[in-house]
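Why run this: before we spend reagent on co-expression, it is cheaper to look at a predicted model of the complex and decide which construct boundaries make sense. The entries below are exactly what would go into the expression plan.
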Amino acid sequence: MVAGEAWHNRAGAGAEDDAAGQGQVAQMRRGVLPYCVLAMLRDGERYGFELVHALSAVDGMVTSQGTIYPLLARLRRQGLVGTSWRESDAGPPRRYYHLTAAGQAALAGFSRDWAQLRDGVDALLSGGSHTGKRETP
Amino acid sequence: MTDDQLAAAYLQRLRRAARGLPRARRKELLDEIADHIAQARAAGAAPLRDVLGELGDPGEIAAAAGPVRDARLGGAEAAAIALLLFGGFIFLIGWFAGLVLLWISPRWRWPDKLLGTLVWPGGYAAVLLAGLTASSGGEACTGGAGRPTVCTGAGGMPGWLGVLLLVTTVLAPAAMAIRLVRSARRVAGDAEPLLPEPVHG
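The model came back. Tokens follow.
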């Protein structure tokens, strides 16, 4: 149907991915996406629509906005985010998401792991393991 | 198509794609997406077609909410339950076939398998057989003009206890079947694909 076509056009915008690498990049993105959602809530609560828009404004982060909602539901079931209903000025009440203590801990843990992984990969990609700095125990 | 029709058609596709999800999860997903569409339309920044395009394929969204394909009862599981209940009438062999299907199915854990085995061996054929045996043993009722009728079942049980026993015996396999159906579905719905590993913290 119509909706699918527009989606494909959008996905085509990430032109830096060649066909072979695209699957792996998509997989990596899927892996980090939950933590990106947690990170977006670090500075305070947001409602779903706002959160989805902010996330998809980051280039190449979200290919299908709708899949963020199941992800949010899952994070809630896992106790990493909480929700509360708020009245809005216009329209029906909105469901706001916020980080729980467990969510904050998970985010902090991931931030450390990510920094380590990123530095390691960067070092390998730019210099190779021979010239790069040696890992100190 | 008007925008209303377009939105309704999209939600209908999502509803269909999400059919296999647990009811609460399905409703929540549909509410959230409907809400997203409503808010995007209220904001009016983009044509509805683009909004729906960015939301993505309904099948993909439903798949992100859980494994929808396996949520229906598998053929082998349905056959197992049917054979456990009524397979005994097929020269008792049918019940054993059900038993085999029950124990080889990955959908059930061992407490369910034990339950399916023990309630009742032989299924309704055994219940019928037991009923015939008990009634041929005789249920004696004494009573007559001016006196309340008193019945004693086999072994001198009071009549109400016999009825209770009978009802329990007949209903237990049905209850077992319902439980097996539920647990087979639950196992399928439990897997959570998107988060690759449990988050530490």
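The first helix of chain A runs from residue 2 to 11. Helices of chain A lie at 2-11, 19-40, 48-57, 68-77, 101-126. Bring this page to Monday's planning discussion.
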